[in-house]
Every structure is written in structure tokens, then in C-alpha cells.
Amino acid sequence: MMVISQDGLISVTRVSQALDILTRLGETATVMAGGTWVMREARDRTFVSLANIPDLTDISLDAQTLVAGSMVTHQDLCDAITGAPDLAALATAAGKSATPAIRRMATLGGNLCTRDFYSADLAPALLALNAEVDLETSSGRQTLSLEDYLNTPVDRPHILLRVTVPRTAARSAHVRLMQRQAGDYPLAVVSLSAVITPDGALRDLRIAVGSVEKRARRWRALEALCEGQTMTSDSIRTHAALRASQDFVGRDAVDGQGWYRLRVLPALVARAFSDMSRTEQGAGR
Amino acid sequence: MMLTLMINGDPVPYHGDPRRSLLEVLREDLHLTGTKDVCGEGFCGACTVQIDGVPKVSCLLPVGSLAGAEITTIEGVSNIETLTAVQKAFLEYDVVQCGMCFPGMVLSMTHFMAENPSPTRAELKSAMTGNICRCTGYERIIDALISLGADGFGSADEVCP
Ligand SMILES: Cc1cc2nc3c(=O)[nH]c(=O)nc-3n(C[C@H](O)[C@H](O)[C@H](O)COP(=O)(O)OP(=O)(O)OC[C@H]3O[C@@H](n4cnc5c(N)ncnc54)[C@H](O)[C@@H]3O)c2cc1C
Ligand code: FES
Ligand code: FES
């Protein structure tokens, strides 16, 4: 099929077409996925819509992996994985972020690629689940860990094609704090994944923090303190309280001050830990 | 380039910038002012419409992405003789105050009630996240919706517009 151009919005049917147009138009163009960010922040640019590219909305889930295309919406992602204990953090992130209407519009790719959006829920959840991303760039296809994708400069332009999450015997949980009960951007987010051994010790622990700084990232110092240990929500809270201000610089913004984001982190870690431990599903909130 | 929008069952030609929001086109070009313009940022839900039967916020929908989609606004939900069950319940329970949130509330909750005919109060509250009402305090809206299953306003089918 052809590229359909309507001046300010170009709808493509192949990833290579999107890259060609983005290369040609440079900073005057932007990828459009669900549109919930670009309609607010980039309306002066030419939108290159990925909506008509086949495969980008595919989701597959089996015993080994979850593979989700970048154009999968938050709602479709939540519906596809609800009930899988290892993926509970992601189901909560996708199912509780934003509002029902936005969850039907905003995409996985948009959540991970919007570098100026600091409160993404899917990013910390996917970091805790050790996700990888497949990208198409002008110089070819690349597979990167999500951690590398978020924290290192990647060739521009690029299209995020899909996200792959390995299935494991771990449980996971995702906890978000807002000013109101729902509908705001989260002030701070903690996602946590671990295997709890029969003697109660934590193995393969991954803790990720979102919204506190500009980019979501793993809390490796806390992971190192707790890995292999038998923890309670009180003991993990104590460790988190000792580390928080050493390991993060809280972000000041209109919705919350940096010091406050740091202050609440230990309680969120404790809550994520108890959610993960309490139920087979690792239900979050 | 010309685009044909399907709005409340009627084809409507559109010429113009495809990045304009559906909200702007509905209100400014077509004078369908039932869809309300409040935050313009996706937070309040006053601009909610249904796209192929599913509630979305029209302030963040570029009109150029809607060719071939069925767009339903509050004007297309019913007419004065045939209110939907959700509208009848809102009227019966006298829940509307200033009315700014209600077109969006009707479009969101009609869809939700069709999919969940016997919701709990908690389920209704989470379904209403994103439809902000500054006047009512929500509880009466919830009473009205809960009544749909109980006192004969209709089954899930009749709840659909
Ligand atoms: C009212 C409201 C509340 C919200 N609350 C939350 C919340 O609580 N938690 C949360 O996580 N998010 C929240 N969001 C943010 C929402 O998740 C983002 O707006 C969304 O993630 C952007 O996704 P999109 O598909 O709409 O992206 P778009 O707006 O289409 O694109 C955004 C950016 O991502 C780039 N991009 C998108 N897809 C790709 C791709 N495949 N490859 C390369 N680049 C790409 C584009 O170039 C663009 O710069 C909220 C948004 C709104 C409007
Ligand atoms: S005006 Fe669209 S959500 Fe508020
Ligand atoms: S009735 Fe006034 S905002 Fe809801």
C-alpha cells in the first residue's frame, strides 16, 4: 500500500517508509502512535502515523515469553496478561495508569519512547521484568535491554517495534502514589519482581523506580542489599530508607517536590514487597 | 486532502489540517457543542465521544486519523423521545447540576454499563476515573447507575444507544 499524505499527517504501512520520512523531514516531523502526547506537545510537527502498519498491534503470550508490539494500547496489554503472576507488575501498570479512555488510546511504544514524559508506568514495570526492545533504525535492526534503551542515546530516527519479556517463576508487583486516588500522573512508582524461595529468601530481585527522576531506572544498591536475604516489609523499608537519598535525586515539578518523592519511596517499596508476597497474583494497586 | 468523517451515522466532508482535534472540528466547524471543551489535555473527560463504540477523549484525537471510524457524540446517542437507560436514570435521580461533565459521563458510562450490567460501587468509581465532575460529588451518579440493574430501567441491551 501507498503512503497516504494529508499534509500534516502521513500514514504509512511499512516501518521503512516511516524511517525514510522521518529522516527526510528531521525535527519537523514526529512519530504518532496513540497521539496522547504529540497532540499536546508536538502539534506543530508533521505526524507520521504508525496506525496502519500491520503486526505492531500483535500480542503473544506463551510459557516462555510475552511479546507485545509497540502499538498495543495499555488496555489491550492489561487484558492480555491479567492473571499471570510473574507479569502482575505490568498488568497493574497498564491497567491502573491514566484513565480508562487514555488507556484505550496510549500505546506501549509511546510510553517508552516519550523522553520528555517522566511519569511513565510501563517503563519501571518492564525494567523490573527484564524486558528487551527491538528497534528499527536507518542502519538496521537492533535488540537492546530496555535499561540500555532508556539510558543511552539511540540512533535517531528509530522505530520501536516490539517489547519482549521473558516468563519466569517470579512474582511481581507495581505500586504508584498519586495526589488523588486515580487519574493523575504518579508522583513515584515502584515495581518489584523476585522469586521467593521455599525458605523465604528473595532471588533474582529487581526493583525499578519511576517518576522520581526524569527517567525510570533500576535500584541496584537496594537490590544488592536484599538479594538472597529473607525480608519483611519492615526490613525492606528500613534498607530503602537508608539508601533513598544516596541513590536518587528527586525531581521538583508542579505535582510534587523532589524531597517528597524520596520520602515516600521506602513506603512504596514496602507496599510493593507485601503485595508481591501476599498473593499468588502479586497484585498491585 | 479531503476526508469523510462518519458522525452520528452521517458522512461529513472535512477539508483542513488533519492534526486538528476532533473536539475542535465538532464544536467549531459542525457546531455539535454537546461535546465539551474543558481541559484540552485528556484529564477531565468532558470531551468524551465514542469511536467505533468505544469511549475516547476527542481533544487528543487528530481528525486525520478518523477516516472510516464511526464517531458518536452526545447528539447521536438518542433523541428527545428515546433517552437511553443511562440518560433516563440520570434524569430520574436528578444527578445533573451544571451539566458540563454530563455528555462525557453519558458516553463513558453507557459503554461501561453495557459491558458490566451489574457493577459494584467500587467498579463504577474506577470506571468514572477520567470523567471529572466538579459539582455533584459522584455519589448520586453512582446511585443512578446502580439502579439500572435493580428497578427496571432495562437490561444491558437497552443500555446501548
Ligand atoms: C490524562 C493523561 C494521564 C496520563 N497518565 C499516565 C499515567 O498515569 N501513567 C503513564 O504511564 N502514562 C500516563 N499518561 C501518558 C500516556 O501514557 C502517554 O501520553 C503515552 O504513553 C504516550 O503514548 P502515545 O501512544 O499516545 O504516544 P504519542 O503521543 O503518539 O507519541 C509520543 C512520543 O513517542 C514517540 N513514539 C511513539 N511510539 C513510538 C515508536 N513505536 N517508536 C518510536 N517512537 C515512538 C513519538 O515520536 C512521540 O514523541 C497519561 C496521559 C494523559 C493524556
Ligand atoms: S477536554 Fe478532553 S479530556 Fe478534558
Ligand atoms: S454537573 Fe457540573 S461538572 Fe458535573
Q: Can you describe this structure?
A:
The complex is a heterodimer of chains A (285) and B (161). Chain A has eleven helices and 13 strands. Chain A is an alpha+beta fold and 285 residues long. Chain A has three domains: 6-49, no CATH class; 54-166, 2-Layer Sandwich (Uridine Diphospho-n-acetylenolpyruvylglucosamine Reductase, domain 3), CATH 3.30.465; 171-283, 2-Layer Sandwich (Enolase-like, domain 1), CATH 3.30.390. In chain A, the strands form three sheets. Chain A has a five-stranded antiparallel β-sheet with strand order 5-6-9-7-8, with helices on both faces. A four-stranded mixed β-sheet of chain A has the order 1-2-4-3, covered by helices on one side. Chain A has a four-stranded antiparallel β-sheet with strand order 10-11-12-13, sandwiched between helices. In chain A, helix 9 runs antiparallel to helix 10 and helix 10 packs antiparallel against helix 11. The longest helix of chain A has 21 residues, at 258-278. Chain A starts with a strand and ends in a 7-residue tail after the last helix. With 161 residues, chain B is an alpha+beta fold. Chain B folds into two domains: 3-77, Ubiquitin-like (UB roll); 85-158, DNA polymerase, domain 1. Chain B has helices at residues 22-29, 85-92, 102-115, 121-128, 139-150, 156-159; strands spanning 2-7, 10-15, 48-51, 54-57, 70-72. In chain B, helix 2 (85-92) crosses helix 5. Chain B starts with a strand and ends with a helix. The model of chain B has no long low-confidence stretch (mean pLDDT 92). The chains are: A alpha+beta (285), B alpha+beta (161). The interface between A and B is medium-sized, with 24 and 28 residues. Bound molecules: flavin-adenine dinucleotide and FE2/S2 (inorganic) cluster (2 copies).
